[in-house]
Amino acid sequence: MSLQLPSVDVPPQPWTGRFDGDGPAHRRWWQAVNHESPSAAGGAAAGQDEEPLVASSSRQSVALLGFSSDEGVRRNKGRPGAAAAPAALRKALGPLAFHLDRTVADAGDVVVSGEDLEVGQERLGQVLAELLDAGHQTVVLGGGHETAYASYLGLSASSAVHSGQRLGVLNLDAHFDLREEPVASSGTPFLQMARAEADAGREFRYAVAGISEPNNTRVLFDTADKLGVRYLLDEDCDADRTRDFVAGFLADIDVLYLTIDLDVLPAAVAPGVSAPAAYGVELPVISAVCRQVARSGKLLHLDVAELNPAFDIDGRTARTAARLIDTLLR
Q1: pTM
Q2: Which end of the chain is flanked by fewer CB atoms within 10 Å, N or C?
Q3: For residues 1 and 70, what is the distance between their CA atoms, to the nearest angstrom?
């Protein structure tokens, strides 16, 4: 699939993975990305007893975009290494069996150079807005959680928001990321969004599942309360309460931006992050949220943030993230 895009810093690179054959029934992600025809294997999967995850009206093509950024984590005094995440996520996605019945294209990477975080965020936002306006469902492969504000810049510049649709931001995360700081970082993106939405005269619709009470100060809880943020603590994230929490949020919006900070998962599942979770939300619960979101038909854009391959164990975190992305797009 050929995408007409503003230039990115790193153009799409060849994908690799296990080879079982050339036929559609053998297809894996590495064989499907940037090819014109959707996988016939995806059509076969959709015919099984399980209901399709995405409504037929939402079967637009998918565009992947990497955001190679460490600067936000560095400013937030975290463990740098997330700039290598886009490559690690592609490596983990490549060998997976391809069951989608739509095309997937890789648009390459936007790279934050040195300390120029804001420049990188603006550039990613520009590319993302163009992809959204071209009708793609978009996936950003981060990057520290400063990726979230870059995603927001693209969403807020797109016709999907300017057409009057109510945008909701659902964050799966151990942290609010509502810090008040003199410079932007991986800890500030949602406060930046709140202020930008207020300046635009729009309501800020933000929900977080997985909040770790010991890792968020009273100031952050107070800020969340003042902004009307909906949140669910990690200890309360059982299957039923999390499903109800997400359903209530989805009912009040038209289009959804889902952002997954991988530190929402237990450290045993996701060791390769800047701030491993001492408690975390179990993977089956997070996976169920992804299926719920996909079935809603409201998912416009998603990103995955805070993967730090330097601290991963056997690619465990990257493979978990790849599985979640695959679930969300099916």
Answers
A1: 0.91
A2: N
A3: 30
